[in-house]
Amino acid sequence: MKLRKVTAASAAVLALALTATACGSEDKDDSGSGSSGGGDKIKIGIKYDQPGLGLKEPDGSFSGFDVDVATYVAKELGYEANQIEFVETKSADRENALARGDVKFIVATYSINDERKQKVDFAGPYLLAHQDLLVKADSKIAAGEDLNGKNLCSVTGSTSAQNVKDKIAPKANLRQNSGYSECIAALQSGAVDAVTTDDSILAGFAAQDKYKGQFKLVGEKLSNENYGIGVKKGDKATVDKINAALEKMVSDKSWDKAVTENFGPANYKNEPAPKIGVIVK
Ligand code: GLU
C-alpha cells in the first residue's frame, strides 16, 4: 500500500515534469532553437542604430549589411524572412544574450577575438573592418595619438573602447555610451572631439543626410576587426551550417550585392570577402 502510494506520487511528479518539459521545449522553439523551418521563428541579434549595418527604420523594418547577411544565413538554415525575429544586441550584451539563449546567433559588427572566444563561438569571418576616428570636418585630429587629453566617445563592451585604453590613446578622456548613435550626437554637439569605432560604422553615420558635410573619417587603420557571427559556446553544428551559408553567399555573389547596396551610399571602401576561418591579425 505504502509502495503504491509512492508510485502514484511519482507518477504525478512525472506527469508534471513532462508537462514542464513540453512547455520548455515549446519556448525553446519560439526562441529560435529549432533547426529547421516549418513555422518556427528564429531570433537573431543585430544592432538597431548603425546605418548601413544594422538599423531599425522608423516603420519597424530593418536594413543594413548585417541584416542582409543574417537573412541569407537564416534562409540557408531553413527560415524565410518572415520567420525571423530581430532582437537588439548592444555591444556589451552580446555574450550574455548568447549564453542565455535569447538569440540563435548574432550578426552585429561582432569582432572575433580571443577574449570573446572564451565565452562564445564564432562562424566567419564575413567582413574585415578597421578601427578609425570620426571628427568634425574642420578638426585638426589626424592620428590616434592626437586623442590624448581630448574628449573621445566609444561604446561599452566594444573592442574600440578597449583598444583606446590599451594602446591608441590611454590618456584620452574616454566616455563610453551604450550605442554609437549617442556618441555621434555628442560629436555633433561638441561634447566630444572624436568618436572611435570601426570605419564601416563611422562611414554609415557620416553619410546620413542629417550629418552630410559635418564630419570626416580620419582614415587611420588602427586595428583589424574580423566580423564573425556569434553562436552559443559549444554549438558546433550551427557554426558549421553558418559557415557553409557564408561560403555560398560569397560564391553566388549575394555578398557583393549586399556590399554594394549597403556600403555604396556611404562610399565605404570595404576589404574583399574574407576566407572562412582565416583571421587577419
Ligand atoms: N567591431 C567592434 C566590436 O565588436 C566594434 C563595433 C561594435 O561595438 O559592435 O566590439
Automatic annotation (TrEMBL):
<feature type="signal peptide">
    <location>
        <begin position="1"/>
        <end position="22"/>
    </location>
</feature>
<keyword id="KW-0813">Transport</keyword>
<dbReference type="InterPro" id="IPR018313">
    <property type="entry name" value="SBP_3_CS"/>
</dbReference>
<dbReference type="GO" id="GO:0005576">
    <property type="term" value="C:extracellular region"/>
</dbReference>
<dbReference type="InterPro" id="IPR001638">
    <property type="entry name" value="Solute-binding_3/MltF_N"/>
</dbReference>
<comment type="similarity">
    <text>Belongs to the bacterial solute-binding protein 3 family.</text>
</comment>
<feature type="domain" description="Solute-binding protein family 3/N-terminal">
    <location>
        <begin position="41"/>
        <end position="266"/>
    </location>
</feature>
<dbReference type="InterPro" id="IPR051455">
    <property type="entry name" value="Bact_solute-bind_prot3"/>
</dbReference>
<protein>
    <submittedName>
        <fullName>Glutamate-binding protein</fullName>
    </submittedName>
</protein>
<dbReference type="GO" id="GO:0006865">
    <property type="term" value="P:amino acid transport"/>
</dbReference>
<keyword id="KW-0732">Signal</keyword>
<dbReference type="Pfam" id="PF00497">
    <property type="entry name" value="SBP_bac_3"/>
</dbReference>
<dbReference type="GO" id="GO:0030288">
    <property type="term" value="C:outer membrane-bounded periplasmic space"/>
</dbReference>
